[in-house]
Amino acid sequence: MRSQTYTETEEQIFDAALKVFSMKGRDGARMQEIAKVAGINQALLHYYFRSKEKLYETVFAHVFEEFTSAARTPFEENLPFDQFLETFIDRLISIHAAHPEISRLWVLENLAGAPVIAQMMREQMENNPNLVPKLFIARIQRAINDGDVRSVDPFNTFVTLLGASVFFLSA
């Protein structure tokens, strides 16, 4: 799932942290529990990730990258807007269905006010022209300009589709 190369221990920590964070949220998770699920001692966990906040941010960054990489696929094809939208929604649902722990993590992050994802999105929106929300906004705007859809707020449309796919599968 991760785009970088990690040691076996780092992989264990990451997978355990994703599991615990997705069940208990950032505030409810404990480093001791993450270490136990990873099958390592707590000192080793702290060696790799100095704090729970750093571990959470790292987990969320990788989840975010995995999600945006997978959701980028429909933008690489030159489809009519209706087919693009159907493909995009199918891709969102497939991603969440294949990784329920990621869906739970997204929901818990949003319920907590989305501080980590909001910061990540701000940074990515400024620095990455190929970020899925930017690509989606541009695609919706093009469809509006071409007369394929009525005038809508492209960003709100993206958020609505994302939320509908996450909450549909989380429920």
Give me a quick take on this structure:
With 171 residues, the protein is an all-alpha fold. The protein contains nine helices and no strands.
Structure write-up:
This protein has helices at 8-28, 31-38, 42-48, 52-71, 81-98, 100-111, 115-127, 132-145, 154-170. The protein is mainly α. It has a single domain, classed as Orthogonal Bundle (Tetracycline Repressor, domain 2), CATH 1.10.357.10. 26% of the residues are buried.
CATH architecture: Orthogonal Bundle
What is the C-level CATH assignment?
Answer: Mainly Alpha
Which overall shape is indicated by the principal axes computed on the Cα atoms? elongated
User: What would you call the structural class?
Assistant: mainly alpha
State the share of residues found in helices, binned by percent.
Answer: over 70%
Using the CA coordinates, give the radius of gyration: 18 Å
